[in-house]
């Protein structure tokens, strides 16, 4: 996400070309990296817990995965539209054709991608409540989500905040219990 955001900032025309394609490939790669992250978070949240906690962790995992799929499809559509277009105006025509299809806009451009954030937040809150992750991590995730939603220009910051919250989760510091890392 950070790489996509940085490439996006360098692309003044936000149109077809190297920056558009490489940025969307970076977005696709970055979001796919969250599949094992969501799996790991859900396992941490469900491990040794009752049925309710396991179901909640499963719901967070499912929401996150649906979000990953939606964002991946969106990135794929954006790549294809970029490859098929000569300029931004041609892209706009193709985007309008794609997004005019029933359910395309909500599934792949608004509600679906939002589930990525819902799943991530649900799992992080659950881990904080269970004291399997420090509450500060959830606060940092919320900040990352917030800045990402304010503007696509803030995606690099959002990605760095996600990284800060997740990078050491699950691997305790020396002499510290893994339960509250």
Helix content: over 70%
Q: Which secondary-structure class do the elements indicate?
A: mainly alpha
The topology string of helices and strands comes to: HHHHHHHH
If helices are DSSP runs of H or I spanning 4 or more residues, what is the number of helices?
8
> Total strand count, please?
0
Count of domains: 1
**Which band does the percent of strand residues land in?**
under 5%
How would a textbook summarize the main sheet?
A: none
Radius of gyration over alpha carbons? Answer: 18 Å
Mean pLDDT: 92
Amino- and carboxy-terminal Cα gap: 24 Å
Q: Spans with pLDDT under 50 lasting ≥5 residues?
A: 173-178
Shape estimate: elongated
Describe this structure in words.
The chain has one domain (2-170). It has 181 residues and is mainly alpha-helical. The model is unreliable at 173-178 (pLDDT under 50). It has helices at residues 2-10, 18-32, 34-46, 51-84, 88-99, 104-129, 135-150, 155-166.
């Amino acid at each position: 996400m950070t790489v996509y955001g940085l490439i996006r900032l360098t692309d003044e025309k936000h149109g077809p070309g190297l920056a558009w394609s490489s940025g969307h490939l970076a977005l696709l790669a970055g979001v796919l990296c969250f599949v094992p992250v969501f799996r790991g978070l859900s396992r941490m949240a469900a491990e040794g817990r009752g049925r309710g906690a396991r179901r909640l962790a499963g719901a967070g995992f499912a929401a996150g995965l649906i979000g990953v799929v939606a964002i991946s499809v969106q990135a794929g559509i954006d790549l294809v539209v970029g490859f098929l277009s000569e300029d931004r105006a041609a892209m706009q025509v193709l985007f309008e054709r794609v997004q005019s299809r029933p359910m395309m806009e909500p599934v792949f451009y608004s509600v679906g991608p939002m589930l990525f954030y819902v799943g991530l937040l649900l799992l992080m809150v659950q881990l904080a409540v269970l004291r399997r992750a420090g509450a500060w991590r959830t606060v940092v995730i919320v900040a990352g989500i917030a800045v990402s939603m304010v503007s696509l220009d803030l995606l690099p910051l959002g990605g760095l905040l996600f990284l800060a919250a997740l990078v050491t989760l699950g691997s305790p510091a020396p002499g510290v219990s893994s339960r509250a890392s």
